[in-house]
Amino acid sequence: MMLWIILIVAAYIIIQLLFTGYLSNKAKKLPKVSYAGVTEHGNKSKPAFRVFLAGDSIAAGVGASSPESSMAGRLADGLAKSHHVLFNNSAVSGSRMADLTKLPAERQNLVVLVISSNDLYHFTPLKKFGLETQKVLSAYSNLSKETIIVGPGNIGGATAVPLIMRPFYNLQKPKYAAILKRASSSYPNVSYVNPADFNIKSYGHTEAADGFHPNDNGHRFWADLVLDSLGKSSS
Questions:
Q1: Interatomic CA distance for residues 74 and 69, integer angstroms
Q2: What is the pTM of this model?
């Protein structure tokens, strides 16, 4: 019996390593798109609406087929329907909460923080994550009329994540979400959006070829999370 268990475990490890290698190769071919710096969108005759986006690979556009189909692009286009948008995206793939140190140079109408997925992925200690979240929200909320923070993503549901690790991510995800919700409630102009509260299945297949990042449908889901949450802070 012990021999069979060893053989099964060994077979799983080999298969998982091969599968992970396959997906890693796919990841290298993903489009790397991002709205870097400041871009303008919408009717210039309207008052300027300043937007600062910071966060991880989702905000940076990894997995999207074009800038326009990325989370950032969709958010900018959505806001441009009624504003002259000055859009500044400082997102960097791989960012954790502690990495959000680049602040906008001037006061913003809207700050969007897409963050915490990498904290969950790397199991950032919850106490440290909580302290960093308070620090980040304190800094950004002082520089914007409205701040929206979104995350974490469904790490435990990603195809690229080994089956043996998925229960651990699923167990920890609500704990990170609870910290974000609690910290956000301390600021009247900050609202928290938990992706787990929304029906991502209605967007169809949302996973990029690497089995981890969002594809165009997934980026549309993340953009809609923000657009549907605008104006819901108490300020």
A1: 6
A2: 0.86
